[in-house]
User: Which sequence fits this backbone?
């Protein structure tokens, strides 16, 4: 079922302020359109007035400072994959970008769109959670920053107001000595919506886990940072028992559902198995 | 609601159309510009039959609102032959038997061009990745890989 | 006839496909690429209910309905039945609904957006009726939705006396195997463009396999004679059986709208509608009961094969027939019974799909043979070797194998090409550790080419050859090109037989006003059956030139062309035709289902190598070897392409493609959610041929198109069994199934460990 095309409006904003003005008047942003246009083509797009933010310069660059990397919300996956600093310091993000859709989708799709589309299966979300990302939101009223782990409130519910734009995603640069792990489990090797996507980082002191971050997608109404499982692991030394305990903890912490793409049991079992696989790499 | 006027360069020629701004680039190419070589296989960004190059980047034209392409440089399958001669990738498709029913072929060739421009000597893995957004139900992809490999080799 | 002494120049070489240039430049004209002045766009309003009575149709507010052409069952000028085998399916529902995608009403408008919007404003009230959705419910017959017992068709093949054997058997092995629906997923959705003219009648052009099926269906719909129903094939973007019978439906709809509006009407399905509403492969369930002797001989095979045909009979009886005949596989056994049934359910009708019933029943036998071998303590290859059909043996229907056949050698060669023995040994060592388990497995099978039994005799296919004034020759047949290479191989055969060049032969696009009826483009019959007719028509054309003394033996292609020109100039039109003649010694009994089921079988061995990740249950294919004996290979590149494409489609069938049903409708009718393999999901597919020319096929060719669909699924599941030691009997085999079986196996192992202590 298609939308009635003449009912919809679209303008292309050249500058950030133009976009913010329009948002304040009730227009909705469109970036790469790889989520929005699918809804539109299926006749399921709930809004009629769209402002394209693809050409806003402030949103499409990647900036480096001593303490953080800031990725504009409209930066594409292709751009992320090719960026030398991201490849060096945030390889999990580049991996996630590399298996988002296909080349054509990566040329259009943006990190900001992935976050605001707020699919629980979004591939960048677990990565941003384990990298402790912060989001910068902007409106005519000003800007504010919120930790990404507080951003999702419920299924497709977020801490963003209608007049706000996601401006950029900040990643703190303190990633050295961390071991990291990422895996996407989807129905096929490309063009796949994740059944489970899993990311984790850890730092060891001696044989003990000094610092650990675990996140998973497609296993709860929101991208899930697995705090309870992390606390089971923190300060402990890797052992078969610990791995088993942690696997049980994460199986209890996730709340997956059965849908047309996979089953609850499968998602739960795979998340636990991936955690084990990660922990075994630390041993 | 209001239509808008959009101009861009298609296969080297400046074109202007007056259409609803959210009309898909795919439909504008096919209906308004009569460039029917670009195909629709799904309308959901999944099959790549509608792929074109937009400012040298591979995109699925079913996901591009036409107004978003204003001012852009667009290349469709009709623009691939140069000076009336088939592009060597097109020639390679013919020789390797890479086109069967042919419905995926225009998109597949656009994806192949993007791949070869980013990576003139791709490995098999890179070829597989470069074409992974273009579904082909006829060939099992093997002849298509071969066509791309043949072009890459001949340019050594 | 093809003789070995004749040195082929064109047949057997990789000439480029006829339409290749049009396809790589995007100039090939598929139906959606054609527009006519004043054209309207048509859409279908569907039921949305699995089974119901229509109470009332009403039209919502806010739509300028007077601008629309609207067609319901009441408007139909002729018979409201899609003519095929049984007369049960209406073009438009008339009072009663039997599946959720049943067409109820048609709309057309010149604005595509408008007509799509309007579709959402037609409201239909229903009185729901109880519905049934699977084989078991259909057989229980508590709710009857078709005929007296929900059964479209039954067959029984009996050879020897199965029941006399059970008591003498050393082992009796039973197994149950099942397969799900599969969507053809041609990348070009279905579409038709119809025009109506009071003088000339209906013309439809579109994406299709069988122009004369469409014509036959439209004639009674409009009460028009054949000359007033013209059907033209457009370039067809994949079909795989999916455009065998369904095009009659959409052509009828477009034609009704054109007839009522007096304007050209184009109907193109979008992907969602195409996936939901058009036919799919029949789901199936097969039960085997097999008697074997201790020394590994098959004594008796008792097979029950059931397919789910959906709401209307369409082609289910024929699909069932092919599945039934292939159910015993390529094995020699004196006592065979195959009982088969096609049942009705309230889903859209299932239909033709590459393989046509054989992939289902061959999946079962090829999994089951491994089970029997295991029971006997034999390797799967040794058990098969002891039981392969050989020249002089007879098949389940009693068909004598007249051609040379050495499946043991074929099997041995395929296993060698795959490095089977080494890998078996290496994998069993590797699999002791780690989470990634490797396995290798294979299947051995056959596929009958051409229509079953007396089918070809009933069809009486005709082809014409016609020389043009410029000395080129045109092939006229109703065989459609849909990617499989019809145009190319028919031109090759004609050129070879005529002694002209490939470039000088044209193949006319099928148009019922211009080509003779050569039957439908299905059943792997194009090369073997129709190619043969092209060959004979070509020989008679050549003969005419020789007799007119315009040619001398040993002529060149150039001389051939000038001879044609001269003939046409001085004598007149140069046209020949050929009609099907049954090869000698073919007998088929439709009642008992005994005799020569097919003119010839093609034979194959497929070997699959897999890695199963026990962390996620994902199965990755690492290597695939497909070795087949298909008679003469007419064009090595095209033939290879057929095998690779078929294997890829069958890999999808085995591991990825699942139709999720909800109340009789497809719930995952998007390409995002119905998963076909991408370029990243396939192993290298290594294709090898053995060539044993078949004397009654064109230049020695047999069928090739469907064969590769049959073998991969059982080969892959046999490989998975080798990797994990778990026997899966259902496809698609998804990671969800693997992981859940692995955890069952793990728990069982723990229980066992516990009970030992
Ligand atoms: C074929 C295909 C395959 C895909 N595969 C994957 C996959 O593997 N993994 C995955 O995670 N996703 C996948 N996606 C989904 C999609 O590509 C991503 O979510 C992408 O990142 C969306 O970005 P976009 O710029 O295209 O978003 P858009 O469609 O433009 O926008 C998405 C939403 O975000 C809002 N928005 C966009 N930018 C901003 C902003 N700066 N501030 C506020 N709101 C904003 C929009 O209003 C809209 O609600 C796939 C999509 C397709 C079509
Ligand atoms: S039609 Fe655009 S990706 Fe399929
Ligand atoms: S050639 Fe038919 S889909 Fe690719």
Assistant:
């Amino acid at each position: 079922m298609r939308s009635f095309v003449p009912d919809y409006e679209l303008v292309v904003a050249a500058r950030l302020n133009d976009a913010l003005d329009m948002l304040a008047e009730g227009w909705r942003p469109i970036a790469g359109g790889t989520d929005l246009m699918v809804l539109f083509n299926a006749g399921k797009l709930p809004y009629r007035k769209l402002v394209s933010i693809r050409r806003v310069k402030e949103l499409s660059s990647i900036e480096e400072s001593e303490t953080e990397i800031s990725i504009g919300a409209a930066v594409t996956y292709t751009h992320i994959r090719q960026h030398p600093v991201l490849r060096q310091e945030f390889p999990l993000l580049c991996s996630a970008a590399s298996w988002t859709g296909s080349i054509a989708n990566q040329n259009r799709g943006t990190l900001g769109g992935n976050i605001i589309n707020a699919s629980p299966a979004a591939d960048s979300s677990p990565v941003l959670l384990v990298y402790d990302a912060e989001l910068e939101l902007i409106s005519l009223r000003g800007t504010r920053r919120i930790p990404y782990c507080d951003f999702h409130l419920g299924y497709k519910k977020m801490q963003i107001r209608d007049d706000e734009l996601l401006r950029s995603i900040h990643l703190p640069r303190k990633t050295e000595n961390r071991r990291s792990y990422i895996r996407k489990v989807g129905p096929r090797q490309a063009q796949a919506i994740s059944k489970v996507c899993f990311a984790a980082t850890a730092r060891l002191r001696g044989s003990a886990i000094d610092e650990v971050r675990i996140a998973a997608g497609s296993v709860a109404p929101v991208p899930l940072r697995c705090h309870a499982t992390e606390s089971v692991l923190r300060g402990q030394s890797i052992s078969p028992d610990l791995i088993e305990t942690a696997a049980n903890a994460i199986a209890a912490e996730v709340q997956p559902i059965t849908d047309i793409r996979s089953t609850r049991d499968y998602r739960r079992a795979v998340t636990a198995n991936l955690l084990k696989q990660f922990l075994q790499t630390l041993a | 609601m209001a239509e808008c006027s959009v101009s861009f360069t298609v296969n080297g020629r400046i074109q202007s159309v007056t259409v609803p701004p959210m009309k898909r680039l795919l439909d504008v190419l096919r209906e308004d510009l009569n460039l029917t070589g670009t195909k629709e296989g799904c309308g959901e960004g999944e099959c790549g039959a509608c792929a074109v190059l937009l400012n040298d980047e591979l995109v699925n034209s079913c996901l591009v609102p036409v107004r978003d392409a204003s001012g852009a440089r667009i290349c469709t399958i009709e623009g691939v032959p140069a000076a009336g001669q088939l592009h060597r990738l097109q020639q390679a498709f013919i020789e390797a038997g890479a086109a069967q029913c042919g419905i995926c072929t225009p998109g597949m060739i656009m994806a192949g061009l993007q791949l070869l421009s980013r990576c003139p000597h791709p490995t098999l893995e890179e070829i597989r990745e470069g074409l992974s957004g273009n579904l082909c139900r006829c060939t099992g992809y093997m002849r298509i890989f071969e066509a791309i490999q043949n072009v890459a080799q001949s340019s050594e | 006839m093809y003789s070995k002494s004749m040195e082929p120049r064109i047949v057997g070489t990789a000439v480029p496909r006829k339409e290749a240039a049009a396809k790589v430049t995007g100039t090939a004209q598929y139906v959606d690429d054609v527009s006519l002045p004043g054209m309207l766009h048509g859409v279908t309003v569907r039921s949305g209910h699995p089974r119901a009575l229509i109470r009332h149709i009403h039209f919502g507010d806010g739509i300028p309905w007077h601008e629309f052409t609207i067609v319901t069952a009441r408007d139909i000028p002729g018979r409201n039945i899609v003519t095929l085998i049984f007369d049960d399916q209406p073009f438009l529902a008339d009072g009663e609904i039997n599946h959720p995608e049943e067409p109820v009403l048609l709309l057309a408008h010149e604005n595509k957006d408008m007509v799509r919007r309007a579709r959402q404003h037609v409201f239909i009230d229903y009185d729901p009726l109880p519905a049934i959705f699977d084989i078991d419910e259909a057989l229980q017959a508590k709710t009857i939705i078709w005929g007296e017992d929900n059964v479209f068709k039954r067959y029984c093949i009996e050879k020897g006396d199965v029941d006399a054997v059970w008591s003498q058997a050393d082992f009796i092995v039973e197994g149950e195997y099942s397969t799900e629906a599969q969507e053809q997923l041609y990348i070009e959705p279905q579409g038709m463009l119809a025009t109506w003219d009071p003088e000339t009648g209906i013309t439809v052009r579109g994406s299709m396999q069988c122009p004369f099926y469409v014509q036959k269906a439209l004639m009674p719909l409009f009460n028009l004679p054949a000359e007033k129903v013209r059907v033209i094939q457009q370039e067809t973007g994949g079909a795989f059986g999916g455009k065998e019978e369904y095009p009659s439906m959409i052509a009828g709809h477009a034609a009704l709208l054109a007839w009522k509006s007096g304007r050209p009407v184009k109907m193109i399905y979008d992907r969602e509608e195409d996936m939901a509403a058009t036919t799919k492969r029949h789901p199936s369930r097969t039960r085997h009961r097999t008697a074997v002797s201790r020394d590994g001989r098959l004594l008796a095979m008792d097979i029950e094969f059931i397919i789910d045909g959906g709401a209307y009979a369409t082609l289910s009886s024929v699909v069932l027939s092919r599945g039934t005949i292939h159910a015993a596989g390529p094995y020699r056994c004196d006592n065979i019974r195959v009982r088969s049934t096609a049942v009705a359910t309230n889903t859209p009708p299932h239909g033709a799909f590459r393989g046509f019933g054989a992939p289902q029943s061959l999946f079962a036998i090829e999994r089951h043979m491994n089970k029997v071998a295991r029971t006997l303590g034999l390797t799967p290859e040794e058990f098969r070797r002891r039981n392969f059909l050989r020249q002089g043996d007879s098949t389940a229907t009693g068909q004598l194998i007249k051609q040379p056949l050495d499946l043991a050698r074929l099997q041995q060669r395929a296993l060698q090409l795959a490095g089977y023995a080494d890998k078996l040994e290496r994998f069993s060592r590797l699999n002791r550790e780690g989470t990634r388990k490797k396995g290798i497995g294979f299947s051995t099978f056959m596929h009958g080419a051409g229509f079953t039994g007396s089918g070809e005799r009933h069809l009486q296919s005709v082809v014409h050859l016609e020389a043009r004034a410029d000395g080129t020759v045109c092939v006229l047949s109703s065989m459609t090109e849909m990617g499989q290479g019809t145009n190319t191989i028919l031109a090759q055969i004609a050129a070879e037989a005529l002694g002209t060049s490939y470039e000088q032969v044209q193949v006319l696009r099928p148009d019922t006003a211009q080509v003779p009826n050569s039957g439908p483009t299905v059943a792997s019959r194009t090369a073997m059956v129709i190619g043969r007719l092209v060959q004979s028509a070509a020989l008679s054309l050549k003969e005419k030139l020789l007799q007119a003394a315009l040619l001398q033996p040993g002529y060149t292609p150039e001389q051939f062309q000038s001879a044609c020109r001269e003939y046409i100039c001085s004598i007149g039109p140069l046209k020949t035709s050929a009609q099907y003649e049954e090869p000698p010694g073919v007998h088929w009994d439709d009642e008992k289902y005994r005799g020569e089921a097919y003119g010839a079988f093609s034979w194959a061995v497929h070997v699959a190598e897999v890695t199963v990740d026990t962390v996620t249950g994902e199965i990755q294919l690492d290597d695939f070897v497909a070795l087949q004996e298909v008679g003469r290979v007419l064009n090595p590149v095209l033939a290879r392409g057929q095998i690779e494409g078929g294997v890829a489609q069958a890999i999808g069938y085995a591991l990825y493609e699942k139709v999720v049903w909800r109340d009789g409708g497809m719930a995952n009718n998007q390409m995002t959610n119905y998963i076909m393999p991408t370029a990243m999901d396939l192993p290298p597919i290594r294709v090898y041929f053995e060539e044993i020319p078949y004397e009654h096929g064109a230049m020695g060719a047999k069928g090739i198109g469907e064969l590769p669909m049959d073998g991969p699924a059982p080969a892959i599941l046999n490989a998975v069994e080798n990797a994990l030691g778990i026997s899966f009997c259902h496809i698609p085999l998804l990671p969800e199934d693997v992981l859940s079986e692995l955890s069952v196996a793990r728990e069982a192992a723990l229980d066992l460990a516990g009970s030992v202590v």
